[in-house]
Design brief:
This protein is mainly α. Helix content is about 65%, strand content about 0%. It has one domain (about 5-120). The protein has five helices and no strands.
């Protein structure tokens, strides 16, 4: 397995979102909280989980085609991500409980897809390339 601390951080954020949603929907926690506020919390935790490995995402989806995941994975992850985004926005704006449930499911699916991919693929080294300054010298 090639999971990192960032994978753990994403796992904790998604787990927190899912557990919060389940407890909220069962009126166990924050029973008087509105659907909008619950959606904002779940959306924020899902966003946190998705952005926990930004450095690797920049490297993997950069110009080096050898490091990119298969196109089918990219298309599926993009579709699930779009569903999560739209469901999150609708859940917040319209206070829709079905869209909140859709957001939670899509977030968990995205987390599961990426965690499995990270676990079965070789780790990616993050390149530390010099950044040119306006004068053309490396910073």
């Amino acid at each position: 397995m090639h999971l990192t601390r960032k994978d753990l951080r994403a796992s904790l954020a998604v787990l927190a979102a899912a557990v919060f949603y389940v407890l909220w929907s069962q009126d166990t926690v924050a029973a008087d909280m509105s659907t909008r506020i619950a959606a904002v919390i779940v959306f924020a935790l899902g966003w946190l989980g998705c952005t926990s490995d930004v450095d690797q995402m920049k490297d993997v989806f950069g110009i080096d085609a050898e490091r990119r995941p298969p196109m089918a994975y990219v298309v599926l992850a993009s579709a699930v991500g779009a569903i999560a985004l739209v469901a999150g926005i609708v859940a917040i704006v319209a206070a829709s409980e079905p869209m909140l449930a859709t957001l939670v499911v899509a977030t968990v699916v995205l987390w599961l897809m990426t965690t499995v991919r990270h676990a079965i693929t070789a780790p990616v080294e993050i390149r530390d390339e010099a950044v040119p300054t306006p004068l053309g010298k490396a910073a």
